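for the writeup, i need someone to sanity check this before i put it in the appendix. the sequnce is what the collaborator sent (i think, or maybe the updated version? ugh). structure was predicted straight from it, no edits. if anything looks off just tell me and ill rerun, i have time this weekend
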Amino acid sequence: MGKEKRSFAIIGLGAFGGTVAVELARYGNNVLGIDMDERSVAQMAPLLSATVILDTTDELALREVGIDRYDVALVAIGQDIQASILTTMNLKMLGIETIWVKAANKTHHRILSKLGTDRVILPEQEMGRHIAQMLHNPAVVDYVSLGNGYSVVNIAVPERMSGQPIAALKLGADHDLRLLGLMRGGDFLSCERPETVLQQDDKLILLGRRPELRRFGDVL
C-alpha cells in the first residue's frame, strides 16, 4: 500500500518556495502555489496542481481560495517579514493543521516561534551547517539533524578499515554511537553481527550526538 498523499499550500514561489513546491508535486502530492508576482505564478502553473496570484496578508482572500482544505502550509515569503508574520497568523486563524515558515533572520525566527508555528526554517544557516560538516570531514557523505543534539550521519569507510570487522570500530567502548546499518553499493546491511567485515567505500549509518559523531569522524 503506497504512502497517502497530502495537500500542500506553498506561499511564496521564489527560489526556496518554488523548489519545495515542484519537488512535492513531483512526489505526486496536491500542491497549491501562491505568490503576488504574476511571473512567478505563471512559471509554476504547468508544474503544480493549482496556482493563484494572491495577497496572503488578506485573510478573506485566503479563505476564498479554500486554504483551509490543505493539510500543510509553507510560508516561504522572502524578506517581507511583516507579510510573513501576518500570513502565518491568518493561517493559524483559518485552522491549518501544520504550518512551516521560512525565517529571514533570528528575530523573525523568534517571533514566528511565539506564534506557535510547527517549524521555523533558516535555510541558509541550516545548509551552511550541513556544508561545514561535510567540508570539515570529507568522510562524511551526508547527515540529517534530528533535533535535541542528535543526528544521523553517513560516513564512508576508509581504505585502512577495509577487511576489518565492525567490532574494530569500537562504537560501544570508545564512542557513544549506534550503528543503524551500512550501505554497500545499493544494498543495505543490518550489521547485527559484530564479525561482519567492512569493505572500503561502505557507508556507515550512525546515530548519535553531534560532538561524538564529529570525534568519531576525526579518528576514523
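Helices lie at 15-26, 38-44, 59-64, 81-93, 106-114, 123-136, 210-219. The two ends are 41 Å apart (CA to CA).
thx in advance!!
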